[in-house]
Design goal:
The protein is built from 12 helices and 7 strands. With 205 residues, it is an alpha/beta fold. The chain folds into 2 domains: 2-18 and 89-200, 3-Layer(aba) Sandwich (Rossmann fold), CATH 3.40.50; 21-85, DNA polymerase, domain 1, CATH 1.10.150.240.
Length: 205
């Protein structure tokens, strides 16, 4: 079974890194002086994040719209500061990746604007040594998970067929989308669960 898999494709937030959106909102509130609930509503209840994730807005247009929505001209440095405050590496999962990458290719596909991947060394500095340049924002493919177009365009960029990929995501709808696109998939719940999934496939890490 191990020979069936050529590449493991990981989600980022709440798989490789813990992500706390509320902490991000609170940091934005501290930076801007605006109420946290108003920021949350303006960004996450407005559909803006999907426009960024799906590539409907490019990085600079997304950042401009982010500031316009909350009524404060958020700089790149401020956006990065808040995004960085919201994440922390999952050391157990990253240790698995460190061992796994000696056996199989690894890559990332995250529902995010290219603003994140362009600044990944600032936001998630542990990732580049593990994944190299194989860190993709869904926005790069002009479609967001769980749209099957997103997975297929990503795999075209990676030059690997869907059936040879194991996709790992914490959201069930994204796992279902991956399977609909022809990928094998694992619904991530914990590092131990992922380790068991890999072991069942002959990958003892």
């Amino acid at each position: 079974m191990v020979d069936d898999i050529e590449l493991i494709l990981f989600d980022l937030d709440n798989v490789l890194y813990h992500y706390d959106r509320r902490r991000r909102v609170d940091r934005l509130s501290e930076i801007t002086g605006l109420p946290a609930d108003d920021i949350y509503a303006a960004i996450w209840d407005s559909g803006l994040e999907h426009l960024g994730d799906s590539g409907a807005l490019g990085p600079q247009a997304y950042l401009q719209a982010f500031g316009d929505r909350i009524g404060y001209p958020v700089s790149l440095e401020e956006w990065l500061e808040a995004r960085r405050a919201a994440v922390a590496p999952d050391d157990q999962v990253l240790a698995l990746v460190e061992r796994l990458r000696t056996l199989k290719a690894v890559a990332i596909l995250t529902n995010n604007s290219e603003l994140l991947t362009e600044n990944i060394n600032v936001i998630c500095p542990e990732l580049r040594p593990l994944f190299g340049d194989r860190i993709y924002a869904a926005a790069s493919f002009r479609a967001a998970k769980p749209n099957i177009v997103c997975y297929r365009r990503c795999l075209a960029a990676l030059a690997v067929k869907p059936s040879a990929v194991l996709f790992v995501d914490d959201l069930s709808e994204n796992v279902a989308g991956a399977r609909a696109a022809g990928l094998q998939a694992h619904h991530f719940m914990s590092a131990d669960g992922l380790r068991r999934e890999l072991a069942a496939r002959g990958l003892d890490v």
